[in-house]
Write a structure and sequence with these properties.
This protein is mainly alpha-helical. 39% of the residues lie in helices and 7% in strands. The protein has 21 helices and 9 strands. Helix 6 runs antiparallel to helix 7, helix 9 runs antiparallel to helix 16 and helix 16 runs antiparallel to helix 18.
C-alpha cells in the first residue's frame, strides 16, 4: 500500500526550504535584510509570506535529533545509541565511537557532539520573529494570529526541551535579539530552564486548538504542547538530574543537577502524563490496539504496531516531523531498499548489534536464546532463521533478518532480501543481527515517511516508570501492560520495584527502537552497564559464513552458519552523560562548560 501526503502545510515547508537553500544556507529572517527586497515587513505583509515563515520555523525546530547536515553529518543517533552500528568507517559517527565527545570543531566547524548548539538559537530566533511580527499579516484573523503566537511558544519549548535533556541549564532567550541587545547571556540553572520550558508549554496549551484542519495537519495542538511538558518533566525526574550531586562535578553544579532527589518530581510527571492521556481520549488519539484488551495480548500486534510507527497521520502520533524533501538524507539513512534508484547511505553497514537484539522477546513473551560469542559457538543458519521467525511482532515490523524477505512489506519486490542486502560478504563488521525497516510498514514504493516525535505509547510507559518510582506497582503494571499487551505479549506481573524498573526500561528500548529515545534514556537513567555493551564498550554482531568462498550471500541457501563476535568497541567517559558546549562559545567568557570537557 502507498500513501500520498499532499497538504498546504507540506507545500509551505517545501517553499520555506527553497528560500532556505537559495540563500546559501543563511537562516531565513535570522536578521533583517536591509539591502535586498525581502524584509520582515514584506514577509509578514500577508498570509502567504507569514505561513512560509511559520513553515520554516517548524522545519528548523523539529529537525532536532534528526540528521540536518550539521553535527551528525552522515548517520543518525541510532548509530551511537547501541541500537545499530555506526556504519561506514568514513562516516562522521566514527569520532564518537573512537574518541567520544569534545567541544572543539570536527567538521562543518561544529563541536564534536550530537547537536549543533548554535542551530538551537537560530531556530528559536525564527520562532520569536514569527511571534513578534505575525500581527502585521492583517489578512489573518486576530484569533488565528493569537494561535500562531501560541504555536511559536510551543516550538520554542520543544527546542529548549531538547537542550535541557542534552546540556542541562542553558541561556534563556525571551525575544528575537537585536544587534544592540546585550548578547552576553549566561546559562540559567537547571531549575530555571525547566520552569522556562514548562511555562512556555502552559502558555501554548492555553492558546492552541484541540484539532487542525486537514490542510494544517502537522502543526501543534494542545495535545502536542501537553506532550512537551510531560516529556521534559519525565527527564527532570530521572536520576541524572534528580540527584543530590552530578555524576561529574563542575564550576556550577546547579547547571546540571537539582541538588536533591525529590519524589515530588515523579508526582509532577504523573500529573503531566495523565493530562496528555485525558486530552487524547477526548480528541480521538489512542494507542492502536484492534485485537486485544485489558491483560489480553493483541492478536493484531504486527499490523497495529506497524501502522502506529509508519502510517502518516495515524491516530497514535500526536506530532511528527513532516519533511516534503524527497532527496533528504533523512530518508536515505532509514530506507534499506534500492527501489527506483533510491540512494542508500549507511544501511548496508548499519546492522543491529546482538547487544540490543537481546532486549526483544519471543512472540510468546519468553526470552530468545542466542549463540554465545566466538566461532566455537557457531550454529547452522537454519537455527538463526528459525529463531528470527519466532521473534515478537515489534521486531518483525521494524527489521528484516538475513536471508529472509522483509516481514513488513510482504510480496513487494523492492523489499525482498535480495534487494535490501548489499551483496557484501557477511563476515566482518557491519551486518549485525538484523537491519531496520522501521517506518516503512506496507510502504511499497514510498520512500518518504513522517518521523514520529510524540507517540501515545510514550505516555503510558512514562506513567509506568513514574508510578513504579513512586512505589505504586499496581498502576505501574497497568500502564506497562497497555503497551506490552498491544505488542501481542502476555501481561507482566512482577511487583518488585527494582526488577520492574528493569522490565520497564526494556520496554522503552523495544517499543521506541530507532525513535531517538534510547540515546538519552540510558544516560538519564544512569543505567548500569552503560559503558559495558549498552551504549559503549564491546559491541557484538552476528557473523555469517558461506557454503563456499565467493558464494552469493543474497541467497539464503548460501548462508551456512552464524556466530556472535565483538566487532567494535565504543569509547566512554562519564562526562558524556551530557553533551559539550562548543569551545568557541566558552571562550567568550560568559557560558560555563559542562563538567569534564
Amino acid at each position: 500500500m502507498q500513501y500520498k501526503r499532499v497538504t498546504k502545510f507540506a507545500g509551505l515547508i517545501l517553499l520555506a526550504l527553497a528560500v532556505f537553500f537559495s540563500s546559501c544556507q543563511k537562516y531565513f529572517l535570522e536578521k533583517p535584510n536591509t539591502t535586498g527586497n525581502t524584509t520582515v515587513e514584506t514577509v509578514f505583509a500577508n498570509r502567504i509570506g507569514a505561513e512560509s515563515a511559520i513553515a520554516n520555523a517548524y522545519r528548523q525546530v523539529l529537525v532536532q535529533n534528526l540528521w540536518n547536515g550539521s553535527s551528525i553529518n552522515n548517520g543518525t543517533l541510532t548509530g551511537i545509541s547501541g541500537e545499530a552500528s555506526y556504519g561506514e568507517t568514513w562516516a562522521s559517527l566514527v569520532r564518537f565511537v573512537t574518541a567520544g565527545f569534545a567541544p572543539t570543531p570536527f567538521e562543518n566547524n561544529r563541536a564534536q557532539s550530537t547537536d549543533n548548539f548554535f542551530d538551537n538559537f537560530r531556530s528559536i530566533r525564527q520562532c520569536y520573529t514569527v511571534m513578534e511580527n505575525i500581527d502585521r499579516a492583517v489578512d489573518i484573523p486576530a484569533t488565528e494570529r493569537d494561535q500562531i503566537k501560541a504555536e511559536m511558544k510551543g516550538l520554542i519549548a520543544y527546542r529548549y526541551m531538547g537542550m535541557f535533556i542534552r546540556y542541562g541549564g542553558v541561556p534563556l532567550v525571551s525575544k528575537a535579539l537585536a544587534a544592540d541587545d546585550d548578547l552576553n547571556i549566561p546559562r540559567a540553572s537547571l531549575q530555571q530552564t525547566l520552569d522556562f520550558i514548562t511555562g512556555l508549554a502552559d502558555e501554548a496549551v492555553a492558546g492552541l486548538p484541540d484539532t487542525r484542519e486537514s490542510r494544517y495537519v502537522g502543526r501543534l495542538t494542545k495535545g502536542a504542547a501537553l506532550a512537551i511538558k510531560a516529556r521534559v518533566l519525565l527527564y527532570a525526574a530521572r536520576p541524572l538530574f534528580n540527584s543530590p550531586a552530578p555524576v561529574v562535578s563542575g564550576d556550577d553544579n546547579t547547571l546540571v543537577c537539582f541538588g536533591s532527589s525529590d519524589a515530588g518530581r515523579w508526582t509532577a510527571t504523573i500529573q503531566a502524563q495523565e493530562a496528555v492521556l485525558a486530552w487524547a481520549r477526548q480528541n480521538g488519539y489512542e494507542l492502536i490496539n484492534t485485537g486485544g484488551g485489558t491483560n489480553i495480548p493483541n492478536a493484531n500486534a504486527f499490523d497495529d504496531y506497524g501502522t502506529a510507527t509508519s502510517l502518516p497521520n495515524n491516530t497514535e502520533v500526536l506530532l511528527a516531523f513532516k519533511l516534503n524533501e524527497g532527496g533528504s538524507k533523512l530518508y536515505k539513512f532509514y530506507n534499506p531498499t534500492r527501489y527506483s534508484g533510491n540512494e542508500r547511505y549507511l544501511t548496508d553497514n548499519y546492522g543491529m548489534p546482538t547487544n540490543f537484539l537481546e532486549n526483544y522477546y519471543r512472540q510468546d513473551g519468553t526470552d530468545q536464546v542466542w549463540p554465545g560469542e566466538g566461532v566455537g559457538n557457531a550454529f547452522l543458519y537454519a537455527d538463526y532463521a528459525s529463531k528470527m521467525q519466532a521473534m515478537e511482532p515489534r521486531f518483525k515490523a521494524s527489521n528484516y533478518a538475513h536471508g529472509i524477505d522483509t516481514w513488513n512489506n510482504p510480496g513487494e519486490f523492492a523489499w525482498t532480501y535480495a534487494q535490501c542486502s548489499s551483496g557484501q560478504n557477511h563476515e566482518g563488521r557491519g551486518k549485525g543481527a538484523a537491519q531496520s525497516t522501521k517506518f516503512y510498514y506496507r510502504a511499497g514504493a514510498r520512500i518518504w515517511f513522517d518521523y514520529p516525535l510524540f507517540r501515545m505509547a510514550e505516555f503510558y510507559l512514562s506513567l509506568a516508570e513514574a508510578y513504579n518510582e513512586a512505589g505504586n506497582a499496581t498502576k505501574a503494571l497497568e500502564n506497562l501492560n497497555i503497551v506490552h499487551n498491544r505488542a501481542g505479549l502476555p501481561s507482566i506481573t512482577e511487583t518488585d520495584q527494582s526488577l520492574l524498573r528493569a522490565i520497564i526500561q526494556r520496554e522503552w528500548a523495544i517499543e521506541f527502537y530507532n525513535e531517538n529515545k534510547r540515546y538519552f534514556d540510558v544516560r538519564h537513567w544512569k543505567l548500569e552497564g552503560i559503558n559495558n555493551g549498552i551504549l559503549a564498550g564491546p559491541m557484538r554482531e552476528f557473523q555469517f559464513t558461506l557454503v563456499a568462498q565467493g558464494a552469493n550471500d543474497r541467497l539464503p541457501q548460501n548462508l551456512l552458519n552464524y556466530y556472535d563476535k565483538v566487532t567494535y568497541t565504543v569509547f566512554w567517559d562519564d562526562k558524556m552523560y551530557l553533551d559539550p558546549i562548543p569551545q568557541e562559545e566558552i571562550d567568550k567568557g560568559i557560558i560555563i562548560q559542562n563538567p569534564g570537557y
